[in-house]
């Protein structure tokens, strides 16, 4: 009896992933550390001074973490309700935060109780931050107002009520100590100057604004809202430079790297996109488990911290650079050690002993060897195989068709199994490498289960999907044939013109030769 030959799976070439310098750089982070917070993480802010601790605002607490600590090294919990937007001052010594109870609290990083309390908002305060002079605080709340506060006297300096919806985000200029920006759910971004009584610029984003970011130079402004990230030129009166739509859901946070050459955006679609600030194209992306609310990058790009809606804090640290210490490396055996005896040719009088090669058969091969056609088909209809290696499923179907047992393997299935079969066929029948086999499979399934059409809504729906997929493919093929006919006509015209030109050249050449001979 001949030995069983395993099913030959057709191998198709795969396109290699494009490896760029950005890919190598952003992959250079360790496996993330997961830290569970008490609620959704609405703000992460790194201290601008070493050792670059970061403040995490979640629920009614603010936790201060060290760069490599998995437990908070300090906690501010004296809030009656939820805390928002804990932000460091430029010297890293003070921390300010808003809250659901309409107050603003100023903390000394080394203390516990608030140094100052600022009262004046009538609704929750979601936005707080320091101006670059370090002695004033700006804020924004759900009462549609933006306010400026004096730290030494704990008094309100000025209040702006130009927004018509919640003020949820903002930032201060690093260049001008009087300029700050706010973003609101009224679809606008406003630029304020503390020396004036009204906003000096209004930018229409087009969607509720979730985050704003000002470049260190102060000339470019980035706003995020809806699925869009938009870049504006402040020096040209708020002219739109580029609009990016790379996320599938609302963009919630923005961040720049230390050099300002890469822009990061986090979204509810669980992705962090990294853009080049020269071309504004996506150069890399990270995928996370749940929707992202906040994002921060350490001043030296050593740590990426992402806060999510389920209260999980995801922390990634950069891998240390490998040092070339050749002296400490163990000396490896020479190359000749590995190839010794590889080129030896046995002589005629030698007795050769061959080592038996053990062949491991896959599950579907074992079932095919024992002629269990239906079970072999079931083995390759499992979701991991169908999704990731559909060529295996198609190869087994082709082998069953070659043996003449495909119809019996497809018959006798319940509603769930028929639904699974039709889903696979409808999805893959349009792929050219699978079409010849799956057209036969679809024909057999239609013949076998035609009498039960109308008895199951699920199966009927899958038959309709299969019909639509095949109909679309036929339409595409007809359009391609029309295009092919047009191209053939064009090529034929070019060929005729070329042949005519060659004939004219030849005839001219003969005439010239005859005239030359006559002259002689």
UniProtKB/TrEMBL annotation:
Q: Which GO terms describe its cellular component?
A: nucleolus
> WD repeats span which residues?
118-159, 244-285
Q: Which UniProt keywords apply?
A: Nucleus, Repeat, rRNA processing, WD repeat
Q: Which residues form the U3 small nucleolar RNA-associated protein 15 C-terminal domain?
A: 344-490
Show the Pfam families listed in the entry: UTP15_C, WD40
Where it sits in the cell: the answer is: Nucleus, Nucleolus
Which Gene3D superfamilies would you find in this protein's record? YVTN repeat-like/Quinoprotein amine dehydrogenase
Q: Which InterPro entries match?
A: U3_snoRNA-assocProt_15_C, WD40/YVTN_repeat-like_dom_sf, WD40_repeat_CS, WD40_repeat_dom_sf, WD40_rpt
Q: Which GO terms describe its biological process?
A: positive regulation of transcription by RNA polymerase I; rRNA processing
Subcellular location, principal: nucleus
General function of this protein: Ribosome biogenesis factor. Involved in nucleolar processing of pre-18S ribosomal RNA. Required for optimal pre-ribosomal RNA transcription by RNA polymerase I. Part of the small subunit (SSU) processome, first precursor of the small eukaryotic ribosomal subunit. During the assembly of the SSU processome in the nucleolus, many ribosome biogenesis factors, an RNA chaperone and ribosomal proteins associate with the nascent pre-rRNA and work in concert to generate RNA folding, modifications, rearrangements and cleavage as well as targeted degradation of pre-ribosomal RNA by the RNA exosome.
**Protein name stated in the entry:** U3 small nucleolar RNA-associated protein 15 homolog
């Amino acid at each position: 009896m001949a030995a069983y030959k395993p099913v030959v799976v057709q191998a198709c070439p795969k396109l290699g992933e494009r490896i760029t310098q950005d890919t190598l750089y952003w992959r250079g982070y360790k496996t993330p550390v997961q830290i569970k917070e008490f609620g959704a993480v609405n703000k992460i802010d790194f201290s601008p001074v070493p050792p670059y601790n970061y403040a995490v605002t979640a629920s009614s607490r603010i936790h201060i973490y060290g760069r490599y600590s998995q437990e908070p090294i300090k906690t501010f919990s004296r809030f009656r309700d939820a805390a928002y937007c804990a932000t460091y001052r430029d010297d890293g010594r003070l921390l300010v935060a808003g809250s659901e109870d309409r107050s603003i609290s100023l903390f000394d990083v080394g203390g516990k109780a608030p140094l100052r309390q600022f009262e004046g908002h009538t609704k929750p305060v979601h936005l707080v931050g320091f101006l670059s002079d370090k002695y004033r605080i700006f804020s924004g709340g759900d009462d549609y107002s933006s306010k400026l506060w004096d730290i030494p006297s704990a008094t309100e300096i000025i209040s702006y009520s130009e927004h018509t919806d919640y003020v949820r985000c903002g930032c201060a200029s690093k260049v001008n100590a009087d300029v700050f920006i706010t973003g609101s759910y009224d679809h606008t971004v406003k630029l304020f100057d503390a020396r004036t009584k009204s906003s000096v610029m209004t930018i229409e984003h087009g969607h509720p604004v979730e985050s704003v970011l000002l470049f260190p130079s102060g000339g470019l402004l980035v706003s995020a809202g809806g699925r869009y990230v938009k870049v504006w030129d402040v020096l040209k009166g708020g002219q739109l430079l580029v609009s990016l739509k790379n996320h599938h859901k609302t963009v919630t946070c923005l961040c720049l790297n230390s050099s300002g050459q890469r822009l990061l955006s986090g979204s509810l679609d669980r992705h962090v996109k990294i853009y080049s600030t020269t071309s504004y194209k996506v150069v890399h992306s990270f995928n996370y488990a749940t929707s992202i609310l906040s994002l921060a990058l350490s001043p030296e790009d050593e740590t990426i911290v992402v806060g999510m809606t389920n209260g999980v804090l995801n922390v990634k640290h950069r891998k240390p650079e490998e040092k070339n210490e050749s002296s400490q490396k163990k000396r490896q055996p020479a190359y000749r050690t590995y190839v010794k005896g590889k080129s030896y040719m046995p002589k005629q009088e030698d007795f050769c002993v061959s080592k038996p090669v053990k062949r491991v058969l896959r599950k579907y091969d074992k079932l095919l060897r024992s002629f269990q056609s239906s079970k072999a088909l079931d083995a390759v209809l499992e979701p991991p195989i169908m999704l990731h290696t559909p060529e295996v499923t198609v190869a087994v179907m082709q082998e069953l068709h070659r043996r003449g047992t495909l119809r019996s393997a497809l018959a006798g299935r319940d509603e769930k199994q028929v639904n699974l079969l039709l889903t696979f066929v409808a999805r893959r029948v349009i792929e050219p490498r699978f079409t010849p086999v799956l057209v036969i499979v679809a024909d057999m399934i239609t013949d076998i289960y035609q009498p039960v059409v109308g008895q199951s809504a699920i199966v009927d729906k899958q038959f309709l999907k299969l019909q639509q997929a095949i109909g679309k493919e036929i339409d595409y093929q007809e359009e391609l044939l029309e295009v092919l006919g047009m191209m053939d006509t064009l090529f034929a015209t070019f060929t005729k013109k070329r042949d005519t030109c060659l004939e004219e050249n030849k005839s001219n050449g003969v005439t010239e030769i005859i005239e030359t001979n006559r002259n002689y």
